[in-house]
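Posting this for the archive.
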Amino acid sequence: MKDLKSKTLILRTYETLAEAMYDKQALEQGGIQSFLSDSTVVQLYPMFSSPFGGIKLHVFEHDEEAANKLLDEIHADEKP
């Protein structure tokens, strides 16, 4: 089990729960723990997405580099 005193950070933000869940599941399949915040508020009140900063994907600080690399690889083909 990872150190419970490790700090977390916001890795990315999303406008929709579907996008956030896709990346969260990709991280978990890659062995990286993560969690979402503000998803309920954004789902119930989409107009508050901007004031709340969208749905946030959090990871442990020590996983930041690996998480960014994994998500960048997954989304590489989506960039124009």
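Helices lie at 17-29, 39-44, 49-52, 64-75. The chain is about 45% helix and 20% strand.
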